Amino acid sequence: MIEKDSSNYKRNLILGVSVPVFIMGLVSFFTDVSSEMIQSILPLFIIDLVEKNPTFILGLIAGITTALANILKGVSGWMSDKINKRKPFVVAGYTVSNLSKPFIGFSPSWEFVLGLKATDRFGKGLRTSSRDTLISYYAVEKGKAFGMHRAMDTLGAVVGSLLAFLFLFWAWSYSEIIFFSIFPGLCAIVLIFFVKEVDPTKMDETKLKYHGESKVDKIDRNFIKLIIILGVIEFASLDIAFLQVRSRDYIFSGLIFLIPVFYLLTNIVYMILSPIMGSLSDKIGRKPIIVSGLSILLVSTIFLAFPIESSTFSLISIIIIYAFYGFYLASVDPISRAYIADLAGKNKRGRAYGYYYLSVGIISLGESLLFGLIYDLFSFFWAFLYVSILLLICIIVFIITDFSKILHKA
Questions:
Q1: Is the pTM of this model over 0.70?
Q2: Tens digits of residue pLDDT in 253-278
Q3: Per-residue buried b or exposed e for 329-341, using 16+ beta carbons within 10 Å of the residue's own CB
Q4: How big is the CA angle at 210 (ends 206 and 215), to the nearest 5 degrees?
Q5: How crowded is the C-beta side of 7, counted as CA atoms within 13 Å?
Q6: Going from the N-terminus, what domains does the chain have, and what CATH number goes with each?
């Protein structure tokens, strides 16, 4: 069923966002309970599974699956605009992901992990552009809507990583924890059916019927310039899996079960700050928020590059770094998505998100591979130094780019 008018949803708000946005937040909550139960221990599971070059293999899995997801986001975003339907992609994507990833726990080798993780990311690639498009359609204030959605998503990550910690503390095996993730995943699959489809040509965001204005709908070189810059930022980012691997050097060997707790801290900070940063970006602009997040990540990567011995100081330091990582995520992730909505017309929003994720997938294809290779062949010092240099370049480019002109021309 195509929903003819989204204005009723925009008048009925839950926590300041429309009902469909809240439901999609719940879907993301349960999906992330499932995903983060796995992700908070997956690097440890892979390192136990792999004997030779484990960090490179971890980077290989992260690089291939992340690139696959982002490239598919590009394809699915284009297709959703082509057929003018988003819900089928969202339903299929959440179903594929939540039914495949729990079986990672039974993998006898890293190749099986790669295959199942790729299936999970295939599902993510199917759903994300269409889900973000639906959120932008139903949003009252885009920054707030994306911020609240990410906060609910991250609340699921908090619960998932907390459960992983408790299960590890209770001596569950990695495999048992990973398979248990199927139960919250099933809840997510059921909930997504309650979100209705939207036909953007029948929406009325400005109290006037929308008939498609070529200026608004056109995705021009200014928009392409923005998504390339945002994609480069993704290339210069640090996958949290590598932070988890590095954090083993900061804690005593008998406290390995604390890593999911550190992961939990990142998600708590992310959850709290996402709606705040989203609303703040609606008021003061997207650019300063993104720059602040990148700068915090730069400070963290520089600190991680230097050797350290396990001590009380190192424990406090790694806790602060995980908190900084949460600030970085909250400042960059939802704000980048809101930027896309600022520049894209309603009829082309799925395509716009698709282009964004496609650029991220292509640009970041080698990021995890290269980091893992440098880490294993040389040392963590050179790996984190490499990321720090890339981040510094990205921050400079982002600062000197006049996004107001891009927005004005668009």
A1: yes
A2: 778 788 888 988 988 898 888 888 88
A3: bbbbbbbbbbbbb
A4: 95
A5: 9
A6: 14-197+214-409 (1.20.1250.20)
